[in-house]
Amino acid sequence: MPDDDSAPQKLTPELLLQAYQIGYFPMADDATADEIYWVHPELRGVIPLDRFHISKSLRKTVRQDRYIVTSDTDFRTVMQRCAEPQAGRRVTWINEQILEAYTGLFELGFAHSVETRTEDGTLVGGLYGVSIGGAFFGESMFSRATDASKVALVHLVAKLRAGGYRLLDTQFQNDHLVQFGTMEVPADDYQILLADAVQTEADFAALPDQMPGSTILQSITQTS
Hints:
Number of helices: 8
Strand order of the largest sheet: 4-5-6-7-8-3-9
CATH superfamily: Leucyl/phenylalanyl-tRNA-protein transferase, C-terminal domain
Strand content: 15-25%
Number of strands: 9
Radius of gyration: 17 Å
Number of domains: 1
CATH topology: Aminopeptidase
Structural class: alpha+beta
CATH class: Alpha Beta
Shape: globular
């Protein structure tokens, strides 16, 4: 990553790939900021894929197939929705530079989105992240309907488990993510997990889209 006294580097898909593989990710002060800064947390949020927790109420929602769930059908829009102010978060770290760089990553096949829609096709929730080898780095999610982003996360975990992923990085731990089993990992331990995961072959598309919620739940709860 750039030294403090070096000239700012343009954020590119190639630079992002280098950064993620050594534990860094970019943020901006807000959506209108022109520049970004690099973050390398001392404690990293991680959801163990074999210990993902789903509440009874969320299980019911997933099983009812309340939303149509797809992946990689509207990546840029998901990012734009994540960048909008939400309840409890009036300021976002996703600026134009980040939007363009991650869209470029998506076009190269190193970023993915999961979308939730109503029956009429309205996009009401979703998430996006970066995928390198067997590591998936969750970036952000948004919700405009009850449990819409949570359902997207459940489907994401099912896809990662089916595809042979080893690491689901959430960057930080917060009150929202704790309910899913997120834990904090010291930076040194995280680097070990990261090094192993990025060298692992994985397939984000191993699980087809729009599978019944009951099948999704079964794929998560069964022993690997």
